[in-house]
From TrEMBL:
<feature type="region of interest" description="Disordered">
    <location>
        <begin position="1"/>
        <end position="29"/>
    </location>
</feature>
<comment type="subunit">
    <text>Homodimer or homotetramer.</text>
</comment>
<dbReference type="InterPro" id="IPR030374">
    <property type="entry name" value="PABS"/>
</dbReference>
<keyword id="KW-0808">Transferase</keyword>
<comment type="function">
    <text>Catalyzes the irreversible transfer of a propylamine group from the amino donor S-adenosylmethioninamine (decarboxy-AdoMet) to putrescine (1,4-diaminobutane) to yield spermidine.</text>
</comment>
<feature type="domain" description="PABS">
    <location>
        <begin position="257"/>
        <end position="495"/>
    </location>
</feature>
<feature type="transmembrane region" description="Helical">
    <location>
        <begin position="211"/>
        <end position="230"/>
    </location>
</feature>
<keyword id="KW-0745">Spermidine biosynthesis</keyword>
<dbReference type="InterPro" id="IPR029063">
    <property type="entry name" value="SAM-dependent_MTases_sf"/>
</dbReference>
<keyword id="KW-0620">Polyamine biosynthesis</keyword>
<feature type="binding site">
    <location>
        <position position="339"/>
    </location>
    <ligand>
        <name>spermidine</name>
    </ligand>
</feature>
<feature type="transmembrane region" description="Helical">
    <location>
        <begin position="242"/>
        <end position="260"/>
    </location>
</feature>
<feature type="binding site">
    <location>
        <begin position="393"/>
        <end position="394"/>
    </location>
    <ligand>
        <name>S-methyl-5'-thioadenosine</name>
    </ligand>
</feature>
<dbReference type="InterPro" id="IPR030373">
    <property type="entry name" value="PABS_CS"/>
</dbReference>
<feature type="transmembrane region" description="Helical">
    <location>
        <begin position="184"/>
        <end position="205"/>
    </location>
</feature>
<comment type="pathway">
    <text>Amine and polyamine biosynthesis; spermidine biosynthesis; spermidine from putrescine: step 1/1.</text>
</comment>
<keyword id="KW-1003">Cell membrane</keyword>
Length: 557
């Protein structure tokens, strides 16, 4: 424990220094360039800024890992648990630096600025040029994610013990009071950083530039605090080294910020090929189009996942829509489907008088209407006078939807294993969908890939049954091995892609997947092939699976 000493006269620039001083002698004096009160304020302001930067690094790792790998719950758990563990180790390790607290804090902040600022770009680069997140956690880019989480946590954990030592050198204070002051500044800074990331940095600067600027702020504040306030606590050599380190860190971050646009273009080309035609960030997700001109097939990617392949989307969308249209179909609800392709198939049935589309991303709808290639592919379906598009979350929208309002509900939503989509495959969601079905109405659900995710697919079936619906499942194979369209395609453009799609047709009475004899003839489906698809799905049935609910999701990531 630090030995007490008579306090300095009020307003004096002389501070108290204990065994952690530069010479380690109790009672040695530390001269400050400002008054004690101002010095304490500056230290607490530094704590505030460093805490905000630390939380931005943390959220950046979580957001990027979720974007690249999906399953936000798993990525958040991994990043946070590793970082919290590493913070404890960093706090213990910082005890060895207490005798040189100023130099140690300066070095820690320079290292943290470099590691945290460059983490997003490094992870994105490894992902783009290797394209493989599979395997165990100890291999490939996943190991890099853990390494960055570990390094960032170690450095953040080392901050508070060193700051505690520095603030006590300015003015002696009981340990409880010092911890309270530092904790208050730390927590308020974390609040500001946590709010700034989603509402300021991410929408205005993006993930890469936001992390780089955060690192620059971190380096400037950490270096200025040590070199300006605790300059006398450093040897001349330590000052030179710290200045050199911060200049180098800022040079690296600035160079990366200047080159970030070129880097992003090169990374996109590495992941998607050289035919990237549209790349934009909406309020919801990253949207990217490739091909669609000079005879090349159009591909639509949402957050790195292949949503539409012009080579085989017809087979997917015909299988999704046409079996559900056998029966009354004047009023149709499409959940998702902002690309307009499911709506295109619905409108081929002349009996469809009204089609409501509920899509969460207005940017996708604008693209489906305005992009020449995508609007040509969907036959300008979203501009048909029978179609009304609502921008909303499907779950929230269904809660206020009128009862018995639709003859057909088409659920064209992302794979249930993507954490953000699990609520759209829950018993509660299907209960809401059942409520909007008219007597004799049908609900069709894309349930994922049967061959590679049979438990997920049959969990969709058991969940629909738990919601009070009768079901019939069918399975359609993709025409191109290793490259398939539909919401269950592989995690990214470079990942393994599922080769089939599974669908579940549900109704209050036992449904029978058949084509409408009075409707249009699908180009890829017949009644005979659909009957074979039903038998193929039934052979994969997994029995005894419990339903998935909001509080107990059953799907894998």
């Amino acid at each position: 424990m630090i030995e007490p000493q008579a306090p300095a006269p009020p307003g004096s620039a002389q501070s108290w220094d204990g065994p952690g001083g530069p010479g380690g002698d109790a009672g040695s004096a530390l001269r400050l360039p400002v008054r004690q009160g101002t010095g304490r304020f500056l230290v607490l302001a530094g704590v505030f800024v460093c805490a905000a930067c630390g939380l931005v690094y943390e959220l950046e790792l979580v957001a990027l890992a979720t974007y690249l790998m999906g399953d936000s719950v798993a990525q958040t758990s991994v990043v946070l648990s590793v970082m919290v563990f590493a913070m404890g180790i960093g706090s213990l390790a910082a005890k060895r630096l207490r005798r040189h607290a100023a130099a140690g804090f300066g070095a820690v902040e320079a290292a943290l600025a470099l590691v945290g600022g460059c983490s997003a770009m490094a992870l994105y680069a490894v992902f783009a040029w290797t394209g493989d997140w599979g395997g165990v956690w100890a291999s490939g880019p996943r190991a890099l994610l853990v390494a960055f989480s570990l390094a960032t946590g170690l450095l953040i954990g080392a901050e508070v013990p060193l700051l505690m030592e520095l603030i006590q050198r300015i003015r002696r204070q009981d340990a409880g009071g010092a911890v309270a002051d530092l904790s208050a500044a730390d927590y308020v800074g974390a609040l500001v950083g946590g709010l700034a990331f989603p509402f300021l940095l991410l929408p205005l600067l993006g993930q890469l530039t936001g992390a780089l600027i955060t690192g620059a702020v971190n380096a400037v504040v950490g270096g200025a605090l040590v070199l300006g306030l605790f300059r006398q606590d450093l040897t001349r050599r330590a000052r030179r080294l710290l200045v050199t380190a911060n200049v180098c860190v800022l040079a690296v971050l600035a160079s990366a910020a200047v080159l970030v646009d070129d880097f992003e273009r090169a990374a996109r080309h590495a992941m998607y090929g050289s035919d990237v035609r549209v790349a934009l960030r909406t309020d919801v997700q990253e949207v990217l189009l490739t091909g669609g001109r000079d005879g090349r097939p159009l591909n639509l990617f949402l957050d790195g996942r292949l949503r539409v392949s012009g080579r085989d989307e017809l087979r997917y969308h015909e299988a999704l829509v046409h079996p559900a249209m056998h029966g009354p179909h004047a009023r149709v609800l499409v959940l998702g489907g902002g690309d307009g392709l499911a709506v295109r198939e619905v409108l081929r049935h002349t009996g469809a008088r009204r089609v409501d589309v509920v899509e969460i991303d207005a940017g996708v709808v604008r693209l489906a209407r305005r992009d020449p290639a995508l609007s040509a592919l969907n036959a300008h379906a979203l501009d048909d006078p029978r179609v009304r598009v609502t921008t909303a979350d499907a779950f929230d929208w269904l809660r206020g939807a009128p009862r018995a309002a639709y003859d057909v509900v088409v659920s064209d939503l992302p794979h249930p294993g993507i954490t953000a989509s699990t609520k759209l495959y829950s018993q509660e969601f299907y209960g809401l969908a059942r409520r909007v079905l008219a007597p004799g109405g049908r609900l069709v659900v894309h349930g994922g890939a049967v061959a590679t995710r049979p438990r997920d697919f049959w969990t969709v079936d058991s969940t629909l049954r738990a919601a009070g619906l009768r079901t019939a499942a069918y399975r359609v194979s993709g025409r191109r091995a290793g490259f398939a369209a539909g919401p269950d395609r592989g995690a990214t453009a470079t990942a393994h892609v599922h080769r089939d799609w599974g669908f579940v047709l549900a109704a209050r009475n036992v449904p029978e997947p058949r084509l409408d004899p009075a409707g249009p003839r699908p180009r890829t489906l017949t009644d005979a092939s659909l009957a074979a698809d039903v038998r193929a799905a039934e052979r994969t049935r997994v029995t005894g699976l419990p339903p998935s609910t909001l509080v107990h999701p059953r799907y894998t990531g």
